[in-house]
Amino acid sequence: MQKAISLHSIVPVRAEARESAEQLTQMLFGELCTVLEQKMSPEGDRVQWFRIRLDNDGQTGWADAKMIDPIAGKDYSGYRRALKCAARVAMPVAYAVSDNNGQTIPLAAGTTLTNYSNGHFQILGVGFRIDPAMVAEQPVEMTPDNLLRTVRFFLNVPYLWGGKNAMGMDCSGFTQVVMSLFGKQLPRNAGEQVRCGRNVPSLLRAKPGDLLFFDHNDGKISHVGILLTSQKSEASLIHCSGRVKVEKIDSTGIFSVERADPDHPQGVYTHHLVAIRRL
């Protein structure tokens, strides 16, 4: 099967081979995939769509063929090895400048930077410059302080189904990106992420950085967030629902002050807590 790479900031991956189809996820700059199938243009003169499987989380979907670049077997193997020790963009958005033509490309948080050193990285023989302050050279240690420092830059990123960048994220895209900065690779969807790590039996035993999973009282995992503070009197989580925000959490679920109304002046529960996992 053909291997390929994204050399664009963001590539939408869709449920069907058409621009108006549901966005399932996004492929970041430098991500690898396998081409499973192709679809020709209506005129039959070119390949218009690739059905791909992402290397990092196994998500499949359709991507615009002109946004995916085939990569030879030798280059693929070498680049895949380089990804194992790559730095990552740590801020919601950073800008890299190509040594080849001086053009600037925006890069989303979680984007891998191969062969990184002192503000320079190289991908498939092309060099780029980037502000070192925007880069995590090694996975960040999961501590309460580091978690707070990392996630505060994502506050108010708007919700976007299938999104995983600073212009729009969904709940599991947010957790996938944030956890990648701490060296934790997650699947794409909340229903898959809940199978990762080990179970934490109660909120009283949870720690900042634990993943919290929710349903709407139907038993089906539909939402995920990250425990931010674990004080018994008032624990909090950060999650993406409408936007990335911090809200109260207790053993029942997420308590939203934003949803207060005349009948519920203190706020309402919006999501039912069903599982806690520690990576």
What do you see in this structure?
It is a single chain. This protein is mostly beta strands. The model has no long low-confidence stretch (mean pLDDT 94). It has helices spanning 73-83, 144-151, 171-181, 190-193, and strands spanning 3-5, 10-14, 23-28, 32-40, 47-54, 60-64, 69-70, 87-89, 93-98, 104-108, 112-113, 120-123, 126-130, 135-136, 164-165, 168-169, 198-199, 211-215, 223-229, 235-241, 243-249, 253-256, 268-278. The radius of gyration is 20 Å and the shape is globular. It starts with a strand and ends with a strand. The chain folds into three domains: 1-82, SH3 Domains (SH3 type barrels); 85-138, SH3 type barrels, CATH 2.30.30; 144-278, endopeptidase domain like (from Nostoc punctiforme) (endopeptidase fold (from Nostoc punctiforme)), CATH 3.90.1720.
